[in-house]
Amino acid sequence: PSQAIDHPMDLSNVDQVVASELSGVKRVVTGFKNNDHEIQGYYVEKVVSRRVSEMKQTLNGAELKGYAMLFDVLSQVKAVLPGATACEIKLNPHSIDVSVTPISMEDAKERNYRVTPELATRFNLDA
């Protein structure tokens, strides 16, 4: 039997998503695992039944939040870099606050801050 769910789906603790084609599916049942590491394996703590349209709306919202955060980080980098040769980007995972601090190139090299080889190759940088 289906149940009405009045609260939005919380995707903050999702460890794995199984990709599938959702066309023709009207409802999805999702299980949430308990994070008790003393228990071997997983067990389902609660089950939520959602309409696929609601789930797609939630996932689209998460994607938009990701783009908004990326825009925020890049805006801060753009504001800092005209007056600096390098910058340090720190992310507080608990509050999702990002800070961009100007640093010298010497500090960056001393701290072994480097771009990924793929990025260095793409933009012809010294990795």
List the keywords.
127 residues, 2 domains
Task: Describe what you observe in this structure.
The protein has 127 residues and is of the alpha+beta class. The protein has two domains: 1-11 and 22-73, no CATH class; 84-122, no CATH class. It contains three helices and four strands. The strands form two sheets. A two-stranded antiparallel ribbon has the order 1-2. The model is unreliable at 1-7 (pLDDT under 50).
Strand order of the largest sheet: 1-2
Rg calc: 21 Å
User: Uncertain segments of ≥5 residues (pLDDT<50)?
Assistant: 1-7
How many domains make up the 3D coordinates?
Answer: 2
Q: What distance separates the N and C termini?
A: 57 Å
Largest sheet: 2 strands, antiparallel
Name the shape in a single word: elongated
Helix content range: 25-40%
Indicate the mean pLDDT: 68
| H and E order | EEHEEHH
Contiguous helical run count = 3
Structural class: alpha+beta
Strand content: 15-25%
Q: Secondary-structure map with pairings?
A:
Elements: E1 27-33, E2 44-51, H1 52-80, E3 86-92, E4 97-103, H2 105-110, H3 117-122
Antiparallel strand pairs: 1-2, 3-4
